[in-house]
């Protein structure tokens, strides 16, 4: 067996349960100890809404149990209360940045298997398994999906294979969000909309879970949450691999 990241032979079996304390199936893909140590799980006190670790934030940018970004989101009537909570698993350090670039932009789709256990573990911590949410991967535009060959959010959502995944959203083609400054992202019109054949009645009072790879400004998740509001959901949460 070889590490899926560095491809070195595994001399010691390292499982994600050592990070997240919950045991899972023994046949999950493994990574070597050296790569394992380069990933930084988010721990300790965090922003109640976005999972930003307060240990990486100056006190002046904190408002009680919120980071200043979320505090400002919640002060704006247009966005207040739309996103119930985002849970991010890892800090977006240089190692994870390179890893996700390899996964998303250089077509190494096999790397998604690395995240099986952390995604499944966090999901179990977030929800009562008797009342699973409806999982919604952040969609790509047709042009962007053709360019990449797959949707990374859909791939991550598929790791929750026993859960109801519904692709009820569509996305218009726009410039990549990663190329925009925060101020430009905030001024961008939402590219998301519900598919035309959606029946709102079947989603009333349901819990939604949006899946994406990175939480940066929070605008993407809130734009989606806003689009979902006509469905009268009970809550809208998100699960992301990384918090930048």
TrEMBL record:
It comes from the Bacteria. InterPro entries: ComF/GntX_DNA_util-trans, PRTase-like, PRTase_dom. Residues 147-242 form the Phosphoribosyltransferase domain. Pfam families: Pribosyltran (PF00156). Belongs to the ComF/GntX family. This is Late competence protein. It comes from Schinkia azotoformans LMG 9581.
């Amino acid at each position: 067996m070889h590490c899926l990241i560095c491809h070195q032979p595994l001399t010691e079996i390292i499982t994600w349960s050592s990070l997240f304390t919950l045991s899972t199936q023994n046949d999950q893909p493994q990574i070597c100890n050296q790569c394992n140590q380069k990933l930084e799980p988010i721990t300790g006190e965090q922003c109640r809404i976005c999972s930003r670790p307060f240990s990486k934030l100056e006190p002046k940018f904190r408002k009680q149990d919120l980071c200043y970004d979320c505090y400002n989101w919640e002060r704006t009537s247009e966005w207040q209360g739309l996103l119930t909570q985002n849970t991010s698993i890892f800090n977006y350090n240089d190692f994870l940045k390179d890893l996700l670039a390899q996964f998303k932009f250089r077509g190494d789709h096999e790397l998604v298997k690395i995240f099986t256990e952390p995604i499944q573990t966090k999901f179990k911590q977030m929800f009562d398994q008797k009342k699973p949410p409806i999982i919604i991967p952040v969609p790509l535009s047709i042009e962007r999906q053709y360019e990449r060959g797959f949707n990374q959010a859909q791939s991550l959502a598929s790791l929750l294979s026993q859960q109801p995944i519904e692709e009820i959203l569509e996305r218009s083609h726009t410039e990549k969000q990663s190329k925009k400054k925060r101020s430009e992202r905030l001024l961008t019109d939402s590219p998301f909309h519900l598919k035309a054949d959606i029946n709102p009645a079947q989603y009333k009072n349901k819990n939604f879970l949006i899946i994406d790879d990175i939480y940066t400004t929070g605008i993407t998740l809130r734009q989606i949450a806003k689009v979902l509001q006509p469905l009268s959901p009970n809550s809208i949460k998100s699960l992301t691999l990384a918090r930048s």
